[in-house]
Amino acid sequence: MNAPNPTPATSSRPWQREPLVWLVIALMLLWSGIRALARLPQFAIKGIVVEGDVARNSVANIRLGAMSRLSGNFFTMDLRSAKEAFEQVPWVRKAVVRREWPGKLRVTFQEHEVAAFWGDEALLNIQGEVFEANPGDVEGDRLPILEGPDGTGPQVLALYRKLNALFVPLRVGVTHLTLTERGSWRAELDSGAPIELGRGDEEQVLARTEQFIRTVTQVTARFKRPVEYADLRHVDGYVIKLKGVSTLQPASAPRKP
User: Fold this and answer.
1) CA-to-CA distance for 225 and 215, rounded, in angstroms?
2) Longest dimension (CA), the chain
3) Which residue in 28, 87, 149, 243 has the fewest CB atoms around it within 10 Å?
C-alpha cells in the first residue's frame, strides 16, 4: 500500500518578503524626512496677524502675552494649545487661530464686553461670565458692583438689569447687588440706601420690589424725606427708614379688592 503524498508545505522565501520590508523602510525614511523638514528654521512662525475686537488690547500686548506660551513652528504647532494661549491674554474672551502660508498665524479675537465689577477683584462680562483683568482699565465706566456664589454671574446680572429698570421712575439706579450664600438678595441704590430684597426666585423678588416702588413715594412725599433704608422681607408690606426720621415707617401692601 502506497503512503499518501504529503501536502507540500508553503514556505516564505526571503525574496518574497523583501518588497514588503523595503516598502516599510521607505515609508519610515519618508516620514523621518518629512518630520526633519518640518522642523527646519525656515518654517518658524514669523508673524501673527490680529483681527477682530482689540479695543482693550494693543496688538503688541497680545503678541507679547501669547508668544511665550506658543511652541512649535508652522507645521508642528498645536492650534488648540495656541488658542488657549491667546485666550489667557487679558480681555480676550475667545480666539480663533488659523495657519496662513507662509509662516504666519491669523488670530481672530472676541473681547470681553464688561458689564459690572464682580466683587473686589474680578469683572463680569455681558454674558455673565467672570474674568480677570486690570480694574484700572474700567475706572471711568461707572460700573455696578455685583456679587454672588461661584457660577451665579448670569443669574445676578439678569436680576440687576431688571431691578435697575424698575427703579427708573424713582430716578435712582442700582449700584450694588449681592446674592448671599443663603440665597438672600440685597441691593444698594446710587442714593446710598441699602434695600433688603429677601429670598426667593426672580419673580418673587421683582414682585416685592414693584410693590415697594408703587407705594414708597406716598411715604416720602408725606415726610418730604428720601429713603435711607428699606426692608422688603415682610409678607404684607415693607419697612423703611427715612433720612432725618429716627423711627422705621411701616408701609402695608395695598389690599386686593
Assistant:
1) 14
2) 133
3) 28
